[in-house]
UniProtKB/TrEMBL annotation, chain A:
Pfam families: BPD_transp_2 (PF02653). It is found in: Cell membrane. This is Nucleoside ABC transporter membrane protein. GO terms for molecular function: transmembrane transporter activity. InterPro entries: ABC_transp_permease. The keyword Aminoacyl-tRNA synthetase does not apply. Keywords: Cell membrane, Membrane, Transmembrane, Transmembrane helix. It is a multi-pass membrane protein.
Automatic annotation (TrEMBL), chain B:
InterPro entries: ABC_transp_permease. It comes from the Bacteria. GO terms for molecular function: transmembrane transporter activity. The chain crosses the membrane at residues 6-26, 33-53, 59-81, 88-109, 121-140, 145-162, 192-214, 226-250, 270-289. CDD domains: TM_PBP1_transp_TpRbsC_like. Its main location: membrane. Keywords: Cell membrane, Membrane, Transmembrane, Transmembrane helix. It is a multi-pass membrane protein. This is Nucleoside ABC transporter membrane protein. It comes from Peptoclostridium acidaminophilum DSM 3953. It is found in: Cell membrane. One of its GO terms (cellular component) is plasma membrane.
Amino acid sequence: MLRIIKKPEPSKQQLVAIKITAVILAFVASTVFILSLGHNPFSVYFSMLEGCFGSLYRFNETVIKTIPLAITSLGILIAFKMKFWNIGGEGQILMGAFLASFFALKFPSMPMALLMPLMIVAGMVGGGLWALIPAFFKARLGTNETLFTLMMNYIALQWVTYLQYGPWKDPNALGFPKIPNFSSNAVLPSVLGIHAGWIICLLFIAGIYVFMKYSKKGFEISVIGESETTALYAGMNVKKITLIAIFMSGALCGLAGMIQASAVSNTLSIEIAGGVGYTAIIVAWLSGLSAPIILLVSFLFATLVQGGAYIQTAFQIPQSAAQILQGMILIFVLGSEFFSKYKIDIKKEKPSDNEDGARTA
Amino acid sequence: MALISFLSAAVQAGMPLLFATVGEIITEKSGNLNLGVEGLMLLGAVAGFQVGLITANPFLAVMGALLAGAAGALVFAFLTVTLRANQVVTGLSLTILGTGVASFTGQSLMGQVVPEGISKFFAAVNIPLLGSIPFIGPVLFQQSIFVYMGFIVAIAAGVYFYKTRLGLNLRVVGENPAAADASGINVTLYKYVHIIVGGALCALGGAYLSLVYIPSWQENVTSGRGWIAVALVIFSMWNPYKAMLSAIFFGGLDIVGFRIQKFDIAVSQYMIDMLPYIATIIVLIAVSAKKSKENMAPQSLGEPYFREDR
């Protein structure tokens, strides 16, 4: 008989070994998939790598795709640490981008040294407030935040669509529905060939790591996530901490939106978030809610996206094939997490004669 | 007359939502939150269309969609029930995978049209007597067989939940799996069966789009309807009877944006498109404020069940 039992907390090496096994299995599955398309898997993989690292330009592109993913995942991490299932990254990105764009479009001639910090703050406030709405109702009434934050994404998307097709539509775009481009003062400058978002990203990775690990608030967030009763018993103001943490969570997503609007598209558009809010949930989860690992996983995801786009032209493999690969890898890694928490006991004797039998899974 | 044609169109536009909503209600009743509805609908849409194209047989097309949805949901069930993976993340991954598979297999189907045999089979049928009732007749009883199927599925789900022993057991599983387990209900089996049936129904909603509503293949044919269905589950308060009304209501909102342009109303279409989500949030808040057991999400929704945690 098979019986599933909880394992004691596995060691770091064990965890890494399990994840690597999962990724290898996913690769085996992907290889079969590529073979079935009639391509040589190794040349496809090689080509994907070439698409990501083959030239300085391509490498920069990969990094640029990593930045919003990593920052948003950091935001999601804070919420997930306290078991607040923030699925609203997408909307928080859009609303952060919206508020930052408001200042970019309203004050195009403000000096960059003033406008840039203003936009960053606006982006964080925009995303933070958007996250605060579901957090408020969760704290007050216990409203289900998974579904609430999901709905907020759609409202944000409709809001930006409304602006893009309505009041903010560029009159000079010959009827094309787009919002005017930012002035150069509102565009995040480049550092070493990549927009300065990468510096902001690294700063926040370090900052959130320290915050979660060493600060009192970070500790309180983890305690609430572990057990709300314990937190209440310890005299923590759970509601207040929830609101602060979720504001921070949304603020980081909003910051990612600001960076995308300012540095990547130079304007606000409905494509700003483009699924990053959802992918970030997966990234945060796969990273085991650890800030430094988020950087690594985000980079791997960016590689998949960038490499996937490249094999499209190189092998005429549709972009959707990369999406299938991504899905398969995710499913294997998700499945593997089981083996870090549980182990399967194989019993030889008949279990019916003791109370163990009733507990056989 | 304009109202009748509008309502009739709203019923048609609401149908993919109804299938997916009832499917997701069945899934959630077992305590599992499957956010992969969009992916499952796309799988159903592409499988139904592909099989329909090859066989020109409406039954096989529907079977193809059901099987594709069941297969997708089986992956979800295995990961979340047996391997206890996080439901939210698994659901999102399923959407990524489903979207990828649909867009990949759909590439060669682009621009193809449903065979005549199938489109004839799913054309509007006027039910004798019922169809001639004024007002209600043309709205409800001069529709495609697929539409009647949607209402039958919703009513059957309602009867199952509220009038049968199995349905009662299912609700216990969703509310309190430990109690269900203690009273001898096979929690794992219940979860598997209902996740798979729910997933198959979501896929049927997708197939309705590609076989009846559009009826040809387009990239991303569902265009976010799977997510609306997740909202509709809340809007309907996990009740399949209410799901019928809310699906038609949301179907109406879906087309009202286009129709409103004819009139000189100073409301943006995009603002109207926002209403379903705002309405859903208001329902969500109202439901949690009222705390009435009947209208709430199943207690254990989203939580994996592990026997030895008891």
